[in-house]
Automatic annotation (TrEMBL):
It comes from Desulfosporosinus orientis (strain ATCC 19365 / DSM 765 / NCIMB 8382 / VKM B-1628 / Singapore I). Residues 11-179 form the Alcohol dehydrogenase iron-type/glycerol dehydrogenase GldA domain. Belongs to the iron-containing alcohol dehydrogenase family. Keywords: NAD, Oxidoreductase. This is Alcohol dehydrogenase, class IV. Residues 191-383 form the Fe-containing alcohol dehydrogenase-like C-terminal domain.
Length: 383
């Protein structure tokens, strides 16, 4: 066995535990945050999740302002509005409660409040030196893994384009993982976000930029998600399954922070940009098609992934198609749509989406070398 060279750091602190949100005031005080922006969305407000956090802050007399107008696939406009509020109120940190959208927005605010300009100026890797804004992230899905990643994805609505900002400066200082915060998710959201987490683990594991360290994280993620995703979607109040998913999603986030992803994510972003397909659904629909395409490059990892995800041993010796079929069966069990046409994607825009997908750095580290024509054919196949 040969070992590829790597360096590895996990810059944020991870705090996990049942009812760990009760420690919020104590943690904020350690971070010297006295007047924070609570950022979340209207769905979480309606589900009573925002109140759970503000109740804890109120009880400790911690000062805060609230911004809740974060939409799915957050836009540059939303980032500008939230940044203006952050500056106007003279706040000194962010408590971010969400799925990926509030977290991406929080990271983008940190960039703009510290460096000025607009978020489009910072697209790409390390386009600014530092940020002065600390973020405490509380995930409400399992998930994006965004609570431990150095990425923020913001949508430029005028261009239907999702831009990615990358810097270790925007990794939240603290990720607070409490399984009670994901216990009221609707089943389809639990399924879609769970498949996103699984896709993070699988793509980072197969990535040509993977290392021993990222593999260890990805394997733990696949073990936890494979064991718990069905149970969790069936009953989000199952604390053991919720904890497994929350931790699995966090491990997957660390894995792809380093190893990055692949064609599936490169192609999922334009589906969100052009057609507003939720990120988890886009990845879930694409995953079997991409695994089929990448099977030619398999160096033995497919069988390991299969062993983490399979429900039962069927006794036959492994071939990559078994993994593809297992994922298809999993989507069926989780009631996730199977084709892109089912979620409103139109053939006419395949070429435009493929051009955007090719701009993603994830194509370059996909296990099988991929050209524009391949991406077009893969969209066509998944349609
Ligand atoms: Zn993702």
């Amino acid at each position: 066995m040969t070992f590829s060279s790597f360096s590895f750091k996990v810059p944020g602190e991870v705090i996990y535990g049942e009812n760990s949100i009760s420690k919020l005031p104590e943690i904020l005080s350690t971070m010297s945050l006295t007047n924070v922006l609570v950022i979340s969305d209207r769905g979480l407000e309606a589900a009573g999740m925002v109140k759970k956090i503000t109740d804890v802050l109120d009880a400790a007399s911690t000062k805060y302002s609230i911004f809740l107008d974060v939409e799915a696939n957050p836009s540059c406009d939303t980032v500008d509005k939230a940044t203006a509020m952050y500056k106007m109120e003279g706040l000194n940190g962010i408590v971010c409660l969400g799925g990926g959208s509030p977290m991406d927005t929080a990271k983008a605010i940190a960039v703009l409040a510290s460096n000025g300009g607009k978020i489009q100026d910072y697209e790409g890797a390390n386009k600014f030196k530092s940020t002065s804004v600390q973020i405490l992230a509380i995930p409400t899905t399992a998930g994006t893994g965004s609570e431990v990643t150095p990425f923020a994805v913001i949508t430029d609505k005028e261009k239907n384009y999702k831009l990615t900002v990358f810097s270790y400066e925007i990794v939240p200082e603290v990720a607070l993982l409490d399984p009670s915060m994901i216990s009221t998710l609707p089943a389809l959201v639990a399924a879609a976000t769970g498949m996103d987490a699984l896709t993070h683990a699988v793509e980072s594991y197969l990535s040509r930029a993977s290392s021993l360290f990222s593999d260890a994280m990805a394997e733990k993620a696949m073990e936890l998600i494979g064991m718990n995703i069905r149970r969790f979607v069936a009953n989000r109040g199952d604390v053991e399954a919720a904890s497994g998913m929350l931790l699995g999603s966090m491990f997957a986030g660390i894995a792809f922070s380093w190893a990055r992803l692949g064609d599936c994510h490169a192609m999922a972003h334009p589906l969100g940009g052009f057609f507003g397909v939720p990120h988890g659904i886009a990845n879930a629909i694409l995953l079997p098609t991409i695994l089929e395409f990448n099977a030619l490059a398999d160096n033995g990892k497919y069988e390991k992934i299969y062993n983490y995800i399979k429900r039962a041993d069927n006794g036959s010796s492994f071939v990559p198609e078994m993994l593809v079929n297992e994922i298809k069966e999993l989507l069926e069990q989780l009631s996730i749509p199977k084709t892109l046409s089912e979620v409103g994607v139109k053939q006419e825009l395949i070429h435009d989406m493929a051009i955007d997908a090719m701009k993603s750095g994830n194509v370059l580290i996909n296990p099988r070398q991929t050209l524009l024509a391949d991406i077009e054919a893969l969209y066509q196949k998944a349609l």
